[in-house]
Amino acid sequence: MDTGFHNAKVSSDTRTRLGWRAGYLLASFGIYMVDQATKAWAVRSLRFQSERTIIQGFFDLVYTENRGIAFGQLQEGGAFGRWFFVGLAIAAAAAVFYYFVRTPRNDDRVLGACALLLAGIAGNLTDRARFGYVTDFIVLHAHSYHWPTFNVADTSITIGALLLAYDLVFDKKKSVVSS
Questions:
Q1: Tens digits of per-residue pLDDT, 138-162?
Q2: Is 43 exposed, middle or buried (0-12, 13-18, 19+ CB in 10 A)?
Q3: Catalytic residue IDs
Q4: What is the DSSP string of 90-130?
């Protein structure tokens, strides 16, 4: 009798686990769509105009095409660089998705971080495969110091990576304390 109840509980736990993961993937797709929509808006609204100041001395919108990787590095790669970065993004997305599906953890920080990473990687991968560059348009600055131009996908990747790093640091501390 106990075995039947236990199997039903395990089956229910598995469905719940899959349901939550499906929800995170749906949220990831939503972030991807917001990224693509904002980039399309930037192309239509900012491409042939000068910058738009949103908050004087802090926040501007400026259309840029980033053919390199993070912060505009390695932009001289040409066609080889484009497809190398596409391959690299596909490998990164596959690794994150594999971790997302296979991790036994169900906490929001890890699953949310993976969903954010997937959305951001997919957003920039789409641009790079379609156009050969990533559309960036958000500029934050403090007077003369300018943060490199970025987009929604970059923000998603950054927040996801920070959440995973936080988890790595504090999860290690928990296991050291409990040992």
A1: 999 997 888 889 999 999 999 999 9
A2: middle
A3: 136, 154
A4: HHHHHHHHHHHHH-----HHHHHHHHHHHHHHHHHHHHHHH
